Amino acid sequence: MAKFVRNFAEKAPGLVSAAVNYSKPLLATFWQYTKVELVPPTPAELLAAIQSAKKIIQSAKTGSFKHLTVKEAVLNGLVATEVWMWFYVGEIIGKHGIVGYDV
Question: Residue 1 is part of which domain span?
């Protein structure tokens, strides 16, 4: 056991420096994307989202959604499915488990 501890103590600084050298560029890329993607929405983006929601409601009222192309309809369906799944993921996280989850 003492030999294992001694070997580990000798190799630990090298392993730590290798891990740091490996992770530096990955963390730099992660931080770059984090600064761009995780910022709160600007007022201009909020106004654009409100206008988009109004457009969707108007489309539902007039029935103009029936004239979408297949590609647009599939993309809209995928976005709706993603929002739906994130709702369920949030519910599972809030419940602290999936066992016994009653939809």
Answer: 1-39
